[in-house]
Specification:
heterodimer, A: alpha/beta, five-stranded mixed β-sheet, two-stranded antiparallel ribbon, 4 helices, about 30% helix, about 25% strand, B: Nucleotidyltransferase, domain 5, six-stranded mixed β-sheet, 6 strands, about 25% helix, elongated
Chain lengths: ~170, ~160
Amino acid sequence: MARRKQSKGEKLETNMSAMIDIVFQLLIFFMITLQISEPEGDFNINMPANGQPTSSDEIPPFPDIKVKLQANPDGTLAGLFFGQRNLGIGPAAFEQLNIEILKVIGRPGDPITKDMAVEIDADYNLHFSNVINAVGACTGRVDKRSGNIVKYIEKIKFKPPTPQAAAG
Amino acid sequence: MAKRERPSGSPDAEVDMTPMIDIVFQLIAFFAVITNFEETQADERVKLPRDTLAKPPEVKVEHQLVLNVGFYRDMKGEKTDTQPWLFNFVNGEPVLPLSAGAQLKKESVLFKNKGIDPAKVTVKVRADAEVQTGIVQELIKLCQNSGFETFAMSAMSGPDE
């Protein structure tokens, strides 16, 4: 391409002020509309309306794994039960639950885990965060090396709240 | 201060704007990329529970109904009332979670009118960490009575508290 020759002493100038005005307006707009929010994740749970997905002629191959969460009157966790065993409270209890679930399924990703289900029985007034932690402990764990999720049991059921607990 | 005199015959003093414009464009590009223009139905009053396993979904959910269950909180994030509310649901007004049945039925009919089966709609339950589990369960039951079957419980990604 031929280069245009500039005549001596003259300099071509564009008026940049209009563009800078617009660019600053855009910058301010984007800065104001920016919402900083933490990443949010979901636990997917399939719950058909009738509650009992298994009919009388269809016997589940494995009984549901029972996890019970008892609450103190203020809604905090009083005890986490795996079957009849009390695993205690706090993060250690949920870690123990995770280990127990792994013992039951044997090997993560085994096709038989598709037929297994965990039934969570939580007290009416229990803080919801405990339920989420229990669901998390049953669903799997994060592999420390790769950071990927190792899935344990994906079928989670909830026991309907008992009327007595609801009244209290 | 004495005004500096411009030497006669020299060209006008000019500021080189190029680096500034470069930087400003970089900033605009950055903000434009990270800005999320999607209308989020999340309510900031809901303090979600935390769990390490809560990872953002890789596939976007096609149809969803968001239920924000939380408390009124003050500037410090402390609860001002022990009554949980369903925020941003009926015309943006908060309602009691257990009296949302009629509205959920309406939502179900709206989905049906659009040709979407409510059973295929994911009900995203954004419940506060301190909401009573029984209330969340009863709200889910109301959803089930309206024909919704798929639920997703939201939590922040991160180590448990």
